[in-house]
Design brief:
It contains three helices and four strands. It has 104 residues and is of the alpha+beta class. Strand 3 and strand 4 form a beta hairpin. The protein starts with a helix and ends with a strand.
Length: 104
């Protein structure tokens, strides 16, 4: 009985998908500054945060580590998701931000 109560309490403490997406958007916005496309790489956060996100190469590991922590928080409530990813397009540095460019 005690384990059931603890489990229910922990499930209510888990963060929602919307909450972790909002937090992740801030992390990406702080991590995708660039001067040239050569500085940009794709980070792979995972479901439900996306397949790929363009970031500065110096921030890739940080973004992926933060994504993993956010996803762990999300999954703590017993939720799980998965999806298949297609190859991303080329990277560009536009207006000082790494972003996916148009496919040729």
């Amino acid at each position: 009985m005690v384990l059931l109560i603890v489990g229910l309490v922990c499930a209510s403490c888990a963060r929602s998908e919307e909450e972790i997406r909002e937090d992740f958007e801030v992390i990406v916005a702080e991590s995708n500054a660039c001067n040239d496309a050569s500085e940009c790489v794709y980070a792979s956060p995972g479901c439900p945060l996306g397949c790929f996100v363009p970031v500065n190469s110096a921030k890739r590991a940080y973004v992926e580590d933060e994504a993993r922590e956010l996803i762990d928080d999300y999954e703590r409530g017993g939720r799980y998701c998965a999806y298949e990813c297609v190859a991303p397009g080329p990277l560009e540095c536009t207006d000082g931000r790494c972003q996916e460019g148009a496919s040729p």
